UniProtKB/TrEMBL annotation:
Residues 49-274 form the Solute-binding protein family 3/N-terminal domain. One of its GO terms (biological process) is amino acid transport. GO terms for cellular component: extracellular region; outer membrane-bounded periplasmic space. The lineage of its organism: Bacteria, Pseudomonadati, Pseudomonadota, Alphaproteobacteria, Hyphomicrobiales. It comes from Phreatobacter oligotrophus. It holds the Pfam family SBP_bac_3. This is Amino acid ABC transporter substrate-binding protein (PAAT family). Belongs to the bacterial solute-binding protein 3 family. The keyword Signal applies. It comes from the Bacteria.
Length: 285
């Protein structure tokens, strides 16, 4: 915590000894130290720099461009946030496992990268209002399969062959809703799409945003995504627990980015299709 921030707390007459002890205990419970406290909004504005963690392996949320710089949907969103806040943007590369630890260690001010809202995460970080959604859908081939697949219930058939990437969200859905189907688990998306392309599988269940790019990369196949969304998840921008000053401003900025159409246009720029489950406009947050 900076000296200015301590003075600010005293200046408002606010921080009692008991309150300080409770705060310290809370921070200890979160595994944070004073040195790891996030910069409050005032420090972001005074340094004129916003540090955004983006994962360049989650294409097209994050991707390395030809100049070996991080680009993608998340990078465009972070640039617009920085522009509206009139600060410089610093993009910090993060991976899926270290997205939240980087935030907790104050190595970044915000984190993007498909941070789905979960109760477990909400115990250790704070979220902005939703930036986007992710939709679980069924992918099959336009040319048809041995067993016609026109609706989710058609998957619950012993003749249907599903192929899935290990550990993805489609697997528990299949276990609960299509237990009769044959299921082959593979390690990655290229192998999964190859199985579908070669007719060794009929369909897969996955997040649309994870398969939209691999679909384009497989030539010679007319794909079909069923209209029905099996489940939707909500994705916000993460800030350090308790950093309400920054979160409050981000909520206003995100609301305006949704209202102006910036989020939707940026989504279609990178994904090539509209967001399957739109984020409803709600100014109350």
């Amino acid at each position: 915590m900076s000296a200015d921030r301590i003075k600010g707390a005293k200046g408002t007459g606010g921080l009692s000894r008991r309150g300080a002890l409770i705060g310290a205990a809370s921070l200890a419970g979160l595994g944070l130290t004073k040195a790891a406290l996030a910069k409050p909004l005032a420090e972001v504005l005074s340094t004129k720099k916003l540090r955004a963690g983006i994962n360049p392996t989650l294409v097209p949320f994050g991707v390395f461009n030809q100049q070996n710089q991080i680009d993608g949907f998340d990078a465009d969103i972070a640039r617009e946030i920085a522009r509206q806040m009139r600060v410089e943007l610093e993009i910090v590369q993060v991976g899926s496992p270290d997205r939240i630890p980087f935030l907790q260690a104050d190595r970044i001010d915000i984190v993007l990268g498909a941070i789905t809202r979960t109760v477990e995460r909400a115990l250790v970080i704070d979220y902005t209002i939703p930036l986007h959604t992710q939709s679980v859908v069924i992918l099959t081939k336009q040319s048809g399969t041995a067993v016609p697949i026109a609706k989710p219930a058609d998957l619950d058939n012993p003749a249907v062959r599903l192929v899935q990437v290990r550990g993805t969200v489609g697997i528990p859905w299949i276990q609960a809703n299509a237990p009769k189907a044959q299921v082959t688990l593979l390690d990655n998306y290229p192998d999964t799409f190859r199985a579908l392309q070669q007719g060794r599988a009929d369909a897969m269940v996955d997040v649309l945003e994870s398969i939209v790019v691999p679909m384009k990369n497989v030539a010679g196949v007319q794909w079909k995504v069923l209209d029905e969304v099996l489940a939707s998840t909500w994705v916000g921008i993460g800030v350090q627990k308790g950093n309400t000053t920054l979160k409050d401003v981000l909520n206003i900025v995100l609301f305006e980015m949704h209202r102006s159409g910036f989020v939707g246009k940026t989504w279609e720029k990178w994904f090539g299709v509209p967001m399957k489950t739109p984020v409803p406009m709600n100014p109350m947050f």
